[in-house]
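Hi V.,

You were right to ask for the full record rather than a summary. Here it is.
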Amino acid sequence: MDVDARAVFLRFFGDLPDPRAANRRHLLHDLLVIAVLAVLCRCDDVEEIVAWGEAHEPWLRTFLDLPHGIASPDTFERVLARLDPLALERALIAWAAALAEASGGRLIAIDGKSLRRSFHSAGATALVHMVSAWCEGNRLALAQLATDQKSNEITAIPGLLELLDLKGATVSIDAAGCQKAIAGKIVAGGGDYLLAVKKNQKGLHEAVGFYFDEAIREGWEGLPRLECQSVDGDHGRLETRRCWCVADTAWVKGQGQDWPGLRGLVCVEADREVFGGKRSVERRYFITSHDPREVGAAFLLQAVRGHWGIENRLHWCLDVCFREDESRVRKGHAAENLSRLRRLALNLLRKLPQTKRVKSLKNKRLLCSWDHDYLLKALTGPE
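Predicted structure:
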């Protein structure tokens, strides 16, 4: 198993360029292996990573070189700070692709998340904001890119899309990514888009909102559409979702809204009733390159709901299970690169099968810290 673990790391990290001088004392491969293993074992910062490495040094020497023992926290942070983020990202994308099972018609959700403790006023370090791509079908984080310090998600999303294989995929993005250039990039990459329309696209939002509100009010008289409904009840709340889809988009272009590949409009109404009588109704609007007559209203409603998997199964898990928002690593690229290693650890843990006693990510990390065989199984997969 130890030989297999070494081979896995060399396969994906072996070609990473080392940013340090030729007289370096610690091998880049050794540092990254220790960091990933330690993150799997409930270590959330460089001090904990080093402490874990020192406690497990005899075992680590069975498959790592460690010519000068375990590196110091300063060395780990310095390497993470200087490591090329894009080179590391490409290695992790290849690893995620190896973990993923092929699934046709997959949904890729894209959304951003700030690393809240990465801001440092004394050191003039800006808040790091990561934009992530999440595959809902495989429940894997596919890729991440940091936004430019003087920019936002709009400029980072096209770069993220270039790293992904979009063929046959549906890409869902919240209102921040509802831009013609982004829609065109998705279509050019062989995918389809489902973009939320809000007031940042004022003209489009008003036009689509008025169209659906009037059609619903008039009972869709004379207007072709597809529709579906779902009902869920949980945590003292009953929620009914109604979805209406239309393929008539010519009038949108006629109003000066020429969106690449636009073939459908979607409205989702969420009717929430909390036990006790409180009720709220909200409508959200979307544009899509899918033809609703080909994919159906149920598919589009599922895609709308599936988008929020990136919040619940990625961002929430990184904050709660990996304590990402508490991390004070700030030097250079260290915050974003350590975030990438957390994402890798999350992917590896999700691929481990559940047992009667080990179901949650928290318990999987705990067992990794106790059992070397289980830890290596997280890396190489179950036999």
